[in-house]
Amino acid sequence: MKMKKKILYLFSDTGGGHRSAASAIIKAVDARANQEMIDVFAEGSGFLNIFAKLYAPVIKYSPQMWGMLYYLLDDEKKLEQLEKISRPFILSTLAKIIKTKKPDAIVSVHPLVNHLTVQAIKDSGLKIPFIVVITDPVTLHRAWITPNVDCCVVATEDAKKLAISYGMPEKKIKVIGMPIHPKFAKGPSDKEKRRKKDGLDPKTFTILMMGGGEGAGGMDEIINKIDRSGISAQMIIITGRNKKLEEKLNAEAGKMKRKMKVYGFTDKVDELMSESDLIITKAGPGTIAEALAMNLPIILTSWLPGQEEGNVKFVEDAKVGFVAREPEKVVEIIKRLQNPAELNAVLRNVKKTRKPNAAIDIADCILKYL
Ligand code: UDP
To answer: What are the structural domains of the chain?
Structure first.
């Protein structure tokens, strides 16, 4: 019997996006290869993992600071300096991983390790194909760009243009889409049955609200505004890893004028999207791509400066949703989307924009390198 080939995925547990992207591709490749995920920072050094761990509190309490850091590092010279600092930690980790695991291909879904991975593969003397899957769908950070990878997968034509302008050879770029878990590929199903099972009214307009893996984006103020608005709707809230918010909202749920179901970090985002009529979220690339796959109009209430600004433009340009920073505006847009004519106009655009099969297509692309 032929031995199965091995694919390693490099990621970091910041937010939910990198892990979700790697898991989505792994699921799509499925039994066609042996696969393993490596959290490069956690594996590498306590020192670098401190920075990875800072992502959650920084985006929750000071997104502006994240924006400053993002723009500061969006510069070739600064990135070189950062690489010099991290080189001793990451390069030796990568060398050890390659030596012990002997992968047949390496896939990175993280911007900060790609130059060093190319170096580590070269140092190993092995011929290992290296594929980078960029998980910023529009405005990608320069850090992603490593010209001497074998293939660079992007989500949109805009991302391709930007990658080329940053020095990525055009022939290495494949425009496929955001890798979302194949469970989203089927689209929504059994809306009313699912609502009933989860203790909601089967026929009531349902609003889903989430703030990425960390439950960021100031959800409680918007929830209160919606509750007091007189809109006829029930709510599903996903607080992700934000335990404090989960507890607070659970305590408030009983006092609300409408049904509200609160979930902490859940692996049934697809099912909860299936139950919903629209989503209110921060502009996380994973959440946006998943919402589109599940035919949900999107209301964006927050985004990380720099990193997620392009996603806002993407949603607005494709007319698949709206931007509403103030709770009053959120309420106004929900009312508009409760009008079937307005809702259907947005849904037509959603159908044109969604790429539910992206992870499956990315998996096929990776397998060609084995
Ligand atoms: N997610 C999840 N369970 C949760 C909250 C979030 O599986 O309770 C997933 C979500 O479906 C998406 C990812 O986490 O795939 C969030 O990624 P995104 O790019 O939207 O934002 P990030 O968390 O990386 O800032």
So the answer is: 6-178+357-367 (3.40.50.2000), 183-353 (3.40.50.2000)
